[in-house]
Amino acid sequence: MLFASRRATLRLTTRGTRHLSDHAPAAAVAFSTTDSIPGSTVVQFCGLAEGSTVRAKNVGHDLLAGFRQIVGGEITSYTDLLQEARAEAMSRLADDATAKGGNAVIGLRLVSSSVSAGASEILAYGTAVRVE
């Protein structure tokens, strides 16, 4: 449930476990999709926090994806691209929550949208709070 700020990389596994790598931040931000952090008490609401990134596909990935569509199977290059985009959006969300005085984000949501042909935005948002 903890996530580091900007320089850390978040890897999501199929079981929903989050793994941090790279440099450890000075402070970690807890995330919850619910309206509370189990075992903690919300002592201050800091407002809406958000983080987003826009990523574009790559020509090499498109060629492999076209082949995968014919023979079937997972398009791992796109899976990796989207995992990196989610990690960046979550990192920016953590930075925004911290800048607003929070040490946790509740009501976490992730949204994706198509910005243009071949480019997508990933938006992570929630309520920044201070918990004890």
UniProtKB/TrEMBL annotation:
The lineage of its organism: Eukaryota, Haptista, Haptophyta, Prymnesiophyceae, Isochrysidales. InterPro entries: UPF0145_dom_sf, UPF0145_YbjQ-like. It comes from the Eukaryota. Belongs to the UPF0145 family. Signal peptide: none annotated. Pfam families: YbjQ_1 (PF01906). This is Uncharacterized protein.
